[in-house]
Design a protein that fits this description.
Elements lengths: L1 E9 L4 E3 L3 E6 L7 E9 L3 H4 L5 E6 L2 E4 L4 E5 L9 H5 L13 E6 L13 E6 L11 H10 L2 E2 L2 E2 L8 E6 L6 E2 H13 L4 E4 L1 E3 L1 H10 L4 H29 L7 E5 L26 E6 L18 E4 L3 E4 L5 E5 L1 H22 L4 H10 L12 H4 L10
Parallel strand pairs: 8-12, 8-14, 9-12, 14-16, 16-17, 17-18
Antiparallel strand pairs: 1-4, 1-5, 2-3, 6-13, 6-15, 7-20, 10-11, 19-20
């Protein structure tokens, strides 16, 4: 039986460890073009295909889904102080940087480009779903507003509100999306100059199991095939991230930020914690957990998956709503654009001082995160390096 597979290729052959095979293909020291191809492949032919010199990774195309907010409600304005709490929590309101001359990309459900919060931003849209541009869900507009929105509902909502160019890849539609769409969107974003890519989406593992069951596979075999696809796709994202990172040495640097996921249920049982979900779990992608606010400090959101690299404000986040105005959402999806926004601020600072590179950008973003202000008793594994912080000088 032939299955749809993603084949990640590099135009320049990769060096390999002859004892470990093609799976250890390393990134070259010179720039190379990257291509994502989708082919119908028999499972038994995968090993032969991976021996090709230009093939970096092969994985089955699998369904992807929105990391759905745990809360959505109407909001009149950000807060009494006229600045969304997350903007303050990461120190963006006191930072001398605004994301000027930094290009950000949001891979999500699209955007309401006509929203007043985006009036000063050049927005370039590309639809990967076949549904057309725009945002019928609202999730993508909300995330974009947190990264680079100006004012909405009477107050500041954006962390990097000096960004003037944004790439919006619509990768999730009414039926969700698929991993090849995400891969192609990442390449599109990097090819168009993205310095920061924000993704609030995840792998639909139950959907993958159901697919195999619908093909007539018994439950055990369906789960096994789904696990194979899960593992292969994590490796696929890791190798794409490595190629993007290497290419940044010869063109613009690109950092990829992704949501950890909302599957934990600490409110039911403190030990009910789910690990970071793909693609955020892949090496080379910065995974983001969610924090809330309280009089006692920033608590870990009960839904936030554990094991993330850093944290951001993710509970009761006010941002742009399609059609105008604002709404409140909660989730690691909301924490992720805060981190992407702070990354844009650091990128501006680094670029102003010299050459922007991913290693330094990631080091600044993670290295300046802090656990100061966390609610007493937090588990360090739940917050990673802590709340990201904007550069202050």
């Amino acid at each position: 039986m032939k299955e749809k597979h993603i084949v990640l290729r590099s135009t320049r052959p990769n060096t390999r460890d002859p004892f470990l095979g093609a799976a250890t293909a390393s990134v070259a020291t010179t720039a190379a073009s990257i291509a994502v191809e989708v082919e119908d492949i028999e499972r038994r032919d995968i090993a032969k295909l991976t021996r090709h010199a230009d093939v970096v990774a092969v994985a089955p195309a699998i369904p992807m889904k929105l990391i759905a907010p745990t809360e959505v409600r109407e909001t009149a304005q950000p807060d009494a102080a006229k600045t969304a709490w997350g903007v303050k929590a990461v120190g963006a309101d006191t930072s001398p940087f605004s994301g000027k001359n930094i290009v950000v990309a949001v891979l999500d459900t699209g955007i309401d480009a006509a929203h007043p919060a985006f009036s000063q931003v050049e927005i370039i849209q590309k639809d990967f779903t076949g549904e057309g541009n725009g945002d019928q869900h609202g999730h993508g507009t909300h995330c974009a507003g947190t990264i680079f929105g100006r004012t909405a509902g009477g107050g500041r909502i954006g962390v990097a509100n000096g960004v003037t160019k944004a790439l919006i890849g619509k990768v999730l539609g009414a039926q969700g999306g698929s991993s090849e769409q995400i891969m192609n969107a990442i390449l599109w974003a990097t090819d168009n100059g993205a310095n920061v890519i924000s993704m609030s989406l995840g792998m639909d593992f139950p959907g993958l199991v159901k697919f195999w069951q619908d093909q007539g596979f018994p439950a055990e075999l369906a789960a096994s095939r789904a696990l194979e696809g899960y593992r292969a796709n994590v490796q696929l994202f890791e190798r794409l991230a490595a190629l993007v990172r290497a290419r940044g040495a010869f063109s613009q640097a690109t950092a990829i930020v992704a949501a950890a996921g909302n599957e934990s249920q600490r409110g039911v049982n403190p030990d009910f914690e789910i690990a970071v979900a793909p693609p955020a779990v892949a090496e080379g992608i910065i995974s983001v957990a969610a924090l809330g606010q309280s009089a006692d400090g920033y608590p870990v959101a009960p839904f936030s998956n554990t094991g993330a690299n850093v944290s951001g404000p993710g509970v009761g986040v006010v941002s742009a709503k399609p059609g105008g105005g604002v709404q409140t959402m909660s989730g690691t999806s909301m924490a992720t654009p805060h981190v992407a926004g702070v990354a844009a601020l650091w990128a501006e600072k680094i670029k102003g001082a010299g050459l922007l590179n991913v290693l330094e950008l990631t080091s600044k973003l993670v290295g300046h995160a802090t656990t100061d202000g966390m609610k007493t008793g937090f588990d360090p594994f739940d917050v990673g390096a802590g709340m990201v912080r904007a550069p202050q000088a």
